[in-house]
């Protein structure tokens, strides 16, 4: 009974923070003609409710694709239709074709915020709670509520979902998939991940770890026996799941091709397209390697879009290959969770058309291992939130950022005593340190060095946050602070990628893992 009381308090606190953040501004509020992501979600409701399915992804007189045209998979469209149906019952003006463009009012804001709350309550939060209760590393159930509190108070997701405006459904479904796989419910996990992928195509960031982990299990069981049966069941489950999601579009090949063209607009080039000339979508504010390099080399001007695509694919593939090979050869739940982090981070740093918000696809898997490496997980989650600063400032979310980020750090310090968890063993680097042989003595001062770097990192992020919010940039360098945020964040992420790959490749214990047979 006590464990549920603690968890109830945790959830109520998390909901209170979300409610407080939702009282503030949202993406594009009062900024015509394009407004922002809030208007995009409202517009998709307008389109899906008023137009037949065959027109949802096509440019027509009633559906101008240059004005927030649908560019997510079918489940996003279906979800928009359900929200639109409810909105129509409350106030038809909210989803009226054409005339509702840019609609803003307090009742409508309440409705839209409520839809995000409901998605959180029905999908994301239950998955977090059940995941934390399922952790075998937790010696006491009190630890489950502590872990859940840290995950649910992660500021990056709160500020984007309940501030900027976004639904947590794809990440929630992916988390349900991880939870199912942790209980060996492989078919249910496959269904959940297929739903996540059919809600947002960015879930491709997580697709290779799911594929490699399940394929590795099939290999371990033997491809001439149980493994072959499991492989056939998994393949059938994926095919049926995709067929169900795409059924309304499956009668016409051109429909399918148009949806795919909307999901993967490769002709836009390497960077997230600035198709609306919006400062919010400026590629220089994304903390990945291509945008960082573009400060020195204007990649868009010297490499063709097709070559950019090939280069991006090659670098991304090579960066995630070691973790995927290790996971396929030695499948374990622990290795799977770390591979989710490593592969998603590789995609964020090196892949094609990355948005600032895509860092959340790395952050949620990091939340899943916060109980194992609390120091590094907390550090990464703070940096990921900091990398969103230019976007948050544009949405007038400085106050929520300034409150939730230090609060999250305080909760992690109190819950996990992270500054005391900096030894090589605590950071899962013991095997790596032993492999250095003659250099092992250097690791004696390792905890002190890591703590110093962490404090230096916090100071740098704090200083840049203050400067970005309060100091006017030089006239000749108007993007100085956003670029500094992106470069500092990118450097952190590159070092984190190296760290996570070292942990994965030098891990031979697979501690706490059930034997796959």
From TrEMBL:
GO terms for molecular function: dolichyl pyrophosphate Man9GlcNAc2 alpha-1,3-glucosyltransferase activity. Dolichyl pyrophosphate Man9GlcNAc2 alpha-1,3-glucosyltransferase that operates in the biosynthetic pathway of dolichol-linked oligosaccharides, the glycan precursors employed in protein asparagine (N)-glycosylation. The assembly of dolichol-linked oligosaccharides begins on the cytosolic side of the endoplasmic reticulum membrane and finishes in its lumen. The sequential addition of sugars to dolichol pyrophosphate produces dolichol-linked oligosaccharides containing fourteen sugars, including two GlcNAcs, nine mannoses and three glucoses. Keywords: Endoplasmic reticulum, Glycosyltransferase, Membrane, Signal, Transferase, Transmembrane, Transmembrane helix. Its main location: endoplasmic reticulum. It comes from Molothrus ater (Brown-headed cowbird). It catalyses: an alpha-D-Man-(1->2)-alpha-D-Man-(1->2)-alpha-D-Man-(1->3)-[alpha-D-Man-(1->2)-alpha-D-Man-(1->3)-[alpha-D-Man-(1->2)-alpha-D-Man-(1->6)]-alpha-D-Man-(1->6)]-beta-D-Man-(1->4)-beta-D-GlcNAc-(1->4)-alpha-D-GlcNAc-diphospho-di-trans,poly-cis-dolichol + a di-trans,poly-cis-dolichyl beta-D-glucosyl phosphate = an alpha-D-Glc-(1->3)-alpha-D-Man-(1->2)-alpha-D-Man-(1->2)-alpha-D-Man-(1->3)-[alpha-D-Man-(1->2)-alpha-D-Man-(1->3)-[alpha-D-Man-(1->2)-alpha-D-Man-(1->6)]-alpha-D-Man-(1->6)]-beta-D-Man-(1->4)-beta-D-GlcNAc-(1->4)-alpha-D-GlcNAc-diphospho-di-trans,poly-cis-dolichol + a di-trans,poly-cis-dolichyl phosphate + H(+). This is Alpha-1,3-glucosyltransferase. GO terms for cellular component: endoplasmic reticulum membrane. It comes from the Eukaryota. The keyword Glycosyltransferase applies. Belongs to the ALG6/ALG8 glucosyltransferase family. Pathway: Protein modification; protein glycosylation. InterPro entries: Glyco_trans_ALG6/ALG8 (IPR004856).
């Amino acid at each position: 009974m006590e464990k549920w009381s603690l968890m109830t308090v945790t959830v109520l606190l998390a909901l209170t923070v979300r409610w407080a953040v939702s009282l503030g501004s949202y993406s594009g509020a009062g900024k015509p003609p394009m407004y922002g992501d809030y208007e995009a979600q409202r517009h998709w409701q307008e389109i899906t409710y008023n137009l037949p399915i065959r027109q949802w992804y096509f440019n027509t007189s009633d559906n101008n694709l240059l004005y927030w045209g649908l560019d997510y998979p079918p489940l996003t469209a279906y979800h928009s239709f359900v929200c639109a149906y409810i909105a129509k019952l409350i106030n038809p003006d909210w989803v009226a074709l054409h005339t509702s463009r840019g609609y803003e009012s307090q009742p409508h804001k309440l409705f839209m915020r409520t839809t995000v709350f409901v998605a959180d309550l029905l999908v994301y939060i239950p998955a977090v709670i059940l995941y934390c209760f399922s952790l075998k590393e937790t010696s006491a159930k009190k630890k489950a509520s502590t872990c859940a509190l840290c995950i649910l108070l992660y500021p990056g997701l709160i500020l984007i979902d309940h501030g900027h405006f976004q639904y947590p459904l794809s990440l929630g479904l992916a988390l349900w998939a991880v939870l199912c796989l942790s209980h060996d419910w492989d078919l249910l996990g496959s269904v959940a991940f297929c739903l996540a992928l059919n809600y947002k195509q960015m879930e491709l960031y997580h697709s290779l770890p799911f594929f490699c982990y399940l394929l590795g299990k099939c290999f371990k069981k033997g491809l001439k026996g149980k493994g072959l049966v499991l492989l056939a069941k998994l393949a059938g489950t994926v095919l049926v799941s995709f067929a169900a999601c795409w059924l309304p579009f499956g009668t016409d090949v051109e429909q399918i091709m148009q949806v795919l063209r909307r999901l993967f607009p490769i002709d836009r080039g390497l960077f997230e397209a600035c198709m609306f000339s919006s400062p919010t979508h400026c590629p220089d504010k994304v903390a990945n390697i291509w945008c960082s390099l573009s400060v020195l080399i204007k990649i868009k001007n010297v490499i063709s879009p097709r070559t950019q695509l090939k280069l991006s694919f090659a670098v991304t593939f090579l960066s995630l290959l070691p973790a995927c090979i290790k996971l396929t050869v030695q499948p374990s739940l622990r290795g799977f969770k770390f591979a989710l982090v490593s592969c998603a981070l590789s995609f964020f740093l090196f892949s094609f058309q990355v948005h600032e918000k895509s860092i959340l696809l790395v952050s949620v898997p990091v939340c899943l291992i916060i109980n194992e490496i609390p120091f590094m997980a907390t550090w990464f989650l703070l940096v990921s939130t900091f990398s969103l600063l230019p976007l948050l400032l544009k949405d007038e979310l400085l106050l929520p950022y300034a409150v939730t980020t230090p609060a999250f750090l305080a909760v992690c310090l109190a819950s996990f005593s992270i500054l005391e968890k900096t030894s090589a063993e605590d950071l899962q680097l013991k095997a790596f340190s032993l492999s250095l042989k003659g250099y092992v003595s250097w690791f004696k001062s390792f905890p002190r060095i890591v703590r110093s770097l962490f404090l230096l990192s916090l100071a740098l992020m704090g200083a840049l946050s203050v400067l970005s919010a309060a100091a006017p940039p030089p006239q000749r360098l108007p993007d100085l602070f956003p670029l500094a945020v992106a470069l500092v964040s990118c450097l952190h992420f590159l070092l984190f990628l190296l760290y996570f790959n070292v942990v994965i490749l030098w891990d031979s214990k697979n501690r706490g893992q059930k034997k796959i047979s």
